[in-house]
């Protein structure tokens, strides 16, 4: 299959057109189109197995067995649901792992400070809590100074309280850094809380989108918040009030 991965034209952080990705002859992404503006925060919802992670892997440049056009910034970083830290390296070397040259410890420590983890710089990954490990993974993404930050359910494994803190942190980092973000989540509230635009994926394409024109910080009690949440839940085919797919 043809691969076409380039830097985007000016004016867009991501431009995807006619993207198809098949596994064993079955198209998971089918003629998909997606544009993300520089600095835009986009959330991606969709039922399990609909192809969200597949799309993220393509955007991250981890999967090139595709057809179609995929234009993404050269500087991009991904955070997965599991933090994926190397257990035999302390936290700060994990943060700069894979960077070219011999990156300085100060670089890692600046990123760790940004996620509130400066004091755990020399800790071993196994001694971190789930939330701390996920913040270390976020620091590893930030140190790459991404123009596009790809987040694949980064808070999925966290307890409710830690999750709220992590969501707030991502919101703050995005506002400070100004990079484009694509956040995959199962949590409709999280999507409406953080994103400028919420997409719903179905049948291999972006089947629906809602623009979130609410001032930040957003209140769950705002009736417009509730209306958006209800509209998205309906799109996802969720008829209970659980808020997840
Ligand atoms: N390497 C692979 N080989 C074969 N099939 C795959 C491969 N990767 C993904 N798939 C299939 O593609 C479909 C989409 O998978 P994907 O992981 O993108 O879903 P998802 O939307 O991220 O789901 P979830 O919300 O559960 O994480 C699934 O049916 C999956 O089994
Ligand atoms: Mg997934």
UniProtKB/TrEMBL annotation:
InterPro entries in alphabetical order: AAA+_ATPase, ABC_transporter-like_ATP-bd, ABC_transporter-like_CS, ABC_transporter_ATP-bind, P-loop_NTPase
Q: Where is the ABC transporter domain?
A: 14-228
Question: Keywords assigned by UniProt?
Answer: ATP-binding, Cell membrane, Membrane, Nucleotide-binding, Translocase, Transport
- Which Gene3D superfamilies does the record associate with it? P-loop containing nucleotide triphosphate hydrolases (3.40.50.300)
Q: Does the keyword Nucleotide-binding apply?
A: yes
One MF term in the entry's GO annotations: ATP binding
SMART domains the UniProt entry points to: AAA
Q: Name one Pfam family in it.
A: ABC_tran
Q: What is this protein called?
A: ABC transporter ATP-binding protein
Source taxonomy: Bacteria, Bacillati, Actinomycetota, Actinomycetes, Kitasatosporales
